[in-house]
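User: Sequence in, structure out. Go.
Assistant: Echoing your sequence, followed by the structure tokens.
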Amino acid sequence: MEACSGSHHIGRPLAALGHDVRLIPAQYVKPFLKGSLATFQQHRSGTDMTASLFDHTVDAYEQYFRLLVLPTNITQREDDTMRRALVTYAALLLVGFAASNAAQQAAGQTGPGWISLFDGKTIGDEWDRVGETNWRVEDGAIVADKRTSQTAAHLVTKTKYKDFQLYVEFWASDDANSGIFIRCQEPTKITDRSCYEVNIFDQRKDPTYGTGGIVNFVEVNPMPKAGGKWNTFEITAKGRQITVMLNGQKTAELHNGLFAEGPFTLQHGEGTIKFRKVTVKPL
């Protein structure tokens, strides 16, 4: 089997069955690999990445053992034991992979270059207010649920941003009408005609530009739902390209140069909206 940090753990139960387990350098194992990097990348783009990667890992290691370690006269019981050991080993590998990926993502939102615009305690001086609603802080989140102005209310950054990454954690009621407006051209008059509006609106009558879409620019089909749970938006704007990720899945990609720079806003229109984390990284 391939010599690696976990090879002893999987080798020991096989040796206990009476097999001659030998470790060999990685370069001699590569010809027996089942699948390829391209296969992994295809799985990675889909929602079944974890299941596909798990199956791929188990199958690949099973092929190693069958070709390099196991005798041809293995019994069914021994074969089942080996399979269980491989499943356990693959599961441990994937747990480590997921933990590492999550740690890298969290570090990326708090590391060099990232700026937090909410400290979990107060709505600070970083924001101007347009429209009227009952913005407040509850349980470490910015909350609004009672708009009193005729038009939607916004928290608007005093800083203008051109190229940036924006990470926002939000909770929306099922009937919420909210969103994040970026590169706004008129900071005191926020509309979807003078900004790019990344929508949060599960019950929009026309779901074409509902949750996850960019109103008037990028449609979503099918529209994802954000109501009743915590969600994440990751928005990247660089030059003419804008990408929107909702809960880790790409929902919109736009190539457009109509709005090049401006502040961004957090909107409250209807229902209840909460923003728990707001960080930005200028590029």
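User: And one key feature?
Assistant: The longest helix spans residues 76-110.
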